């Protein structure tokens, strides 16, 4: 299981990687493994400002449907078009080709409330 150091994690199992004034968001390797085979990803908030902790979409797996929560507040500026035809990318490469959205971050200080890889590993028991 992967836990990249260059991302921050939420208790809801999303990750965020900040690059300049934009950030990429997805679900963690742990989350995708718990969900099982991802069959559909829906983002309902493109072009909207979503608060930290707000729902920006959902991921459907064979076992269940799970809400996707914003790690920090921001405007959803892009969705991953590859997931329309290949939602399994979330399983195969959760920190790379399986990213879900890109956002414009409203308040970078909210990043301070997120976890490092080491902190995240502790809360999931790894």
How would you summarize what this structure contains?
The protein has 126 residues and is α+β, with helices and mostly antiparallel strands. 18% of the residues lie in helices and 36% in strands.
Q: Indicate the radius of gyration in whole angstroms.
A: 13 Å
N to C succession of SSEs: EEEHEEEEEHHEH
Given as residue ranges, the uncertain stretches (5+ residues, pLDDT < 50) are none
Give the helix tally.
4
CATH superfamily: RNA polymerase II/Efflux pump adaptor protein, barrel-sandwich hybrid domain
Please state roughly what percent of the residues sit in beta strands, choosing from under 5%, 5-15%, 15-25%, 25-35%, 35-45% or over 45%.
Answer: 35-45%
Fold and architecture overview:
By secondary structure, the chain is an alpha+beta fold. The protein has one domain (8-107): OB fold (Dihydrolipoamide Acetyltransferase, E2P) (Beta Barrel). It is 18% helix and 36% strand. It is built from four helices and nine strands, in the order βββαβββββααβα. It has a six-stranded antiparallel sheet. It has a three-stranded antiparallel sheet with strand order 4-6-7. The radius of gyration is 13 Å and the shape is globular. The termini are close together.
